[in-house]
From TrEMBL:
Protein name (Swiss-Prot/TrEMBL): Cytochrome P450
InterPro entries: Cyt_P450, Cyt_P450_CS, Cyt_P450_E_grp-I, Cyt_P450_sf, Cytochrome_P450_Monoox
GO molecular function, one term: iron ion binding
TM spans (from-to): none
PANTHER family listed in its UniProt record: BIFUNCTIONAL ALBAFLAVENONE MONOOXYGENASE_TERPENE SYNTHASE, CYTOCHROME P450 FAMILY 4
Domain of life: Bacteria
Record: residues binding heme: C400
Source species: Nonomuraea cavernae
Family of this protein: Belongs to the cytochrome P450 family.
Cofactor: heme
The entry's keywords: Heme, Iron, Metal-binding, Monooxygenase, Oxidoreductase
Amino acid sequence: MPIGGISTRKATNVPFLASLTRNARTPIDAFTEASERAGGELVRLNMGPFRPYLVTHPDHVQHVLIQNQPNFVREGMFWKPLAPLLGEGILSDGETWAESRRILQPLFTARYVNSLAEQMAVIINELIEETITPGRPFDIAKGISAIVHPTIVRLFFGSKISVADIQRLVPAYDVAVTAKAVRLLMPFVPQGVPMPGDRAFRRAIKTIDGVVYPRIREARARALESPGEESTDVVSRLVKARQDVAGEEGDRRIRDDLVAMHGASTETSATALTWAWPVLDAHADMAAKVYEEIDRVVGGDPVSTAHLPHMPYLRMFVNELLRLYPPGWILPRMAVAADVIGGVAIEAGSTVLLSPYLTHRMAEFWDSPSVFDPDRFAPGREAGRHRYAYWPFGAGPHVCLGQHLFLMEAPLVIAGILRKYRPVMRLDRPVTPRLASSLRPPSGLTMTLVPRGRS
Ligand code: HEM
């Protein structure tokens, strides 16, 4: 069928429902199977009433996220379930998104990010001291979350948030981002039909709002009382940036950006940093290089941002971690108008699914793609690679605002722990991802941190 003079074809249908059922415990395997069958072509995942297009080839990623980006919006069946959490801010689309991006972008200038990272280093060192009990096995996801979540909360709200509020906020976020996993897998079920997780999701939002709104009002009151005061926390900066929009509407817009950013930053960072440990455990040779570099550069001192440029291997390790386990593993978009991607015609209103997880594992762009190898990111090795073969932080106008912050946070956490401890795990099989809205390892993965010199 020709569109705009270009000859197009229909997408091949890949039977997907049966594959999902077969891989019920590890649905990501169903996506991997579909991607391998597609071989980089645009295909349709046949789930009966719902048939999204699967986009894997870097050229097609570039088309959707950059070249024809305005045609692919963050709306539709995948985004709707999360709308009550994310609201109309930086994780929405169109006018409200553009306004939030204009307001938030200046918060992520190199200067402000560096100052946030310095505060972050101090908080991370304190939390490692407070939360780790050497010699006692702990659940890795929970242990890492106990460092990552309060760090972000303290950066966002400054010292003005109580420990009790942090303790309410952190589990509420956890519930909010995991409760919708079933709906995300079955997006064709109407919103009116109750699904597991819906009630827990509503309760979690109530808790989050119960903590966030009072902090916004306090920050507003402070800004009025002492207009000249320079607060570095994110909520004070947002209040200042939005001072023209007063009242409930203004509060809601700040709430939406804060909550969306909090969700975007904690779940992704905690997930990525949880993967680091089973990967170190599985690759003793790479772990030895990581340990050696940290010992040489950080030694016994508290880790600081000044150490980061001197730990290139750790940076390569983190890049490779995000290649094989990109926490934002699936990005859905809705096509506003009909389009052609890679010669395949797609209709207006259809859903396209992009996945860095799948693109990062394509044999056409990566040698032995399933092998964990930080050297892929050694200086000079990236030249010649397709620009969109690697995109853990998204691309185009919606590209992650927090990527530089995370690329400082990750080595701060890993080196902060490893300068003092060695991890001991008892894994009897390879660790495979489980499905949540981010790419989490299975729950219940434990490790013990043993003081250095005694492992
Ligand atoms: C491992 C860590 C992280 C990963 C893998 C990650 C990944 C992503 C991805 C894939 C997107 C694009 C979403 C889309 O196109 O629909 C995104 C957007 C975003 N991320 Fe991150 N992110 C991480 C950490 C952070 C951190 C630490 C922050 C904030 C401090 C943050 C804030 C944001 C925001 C605000 C957006 C929305 C940007 C927009 O739509 O304009 N992220 N992130």
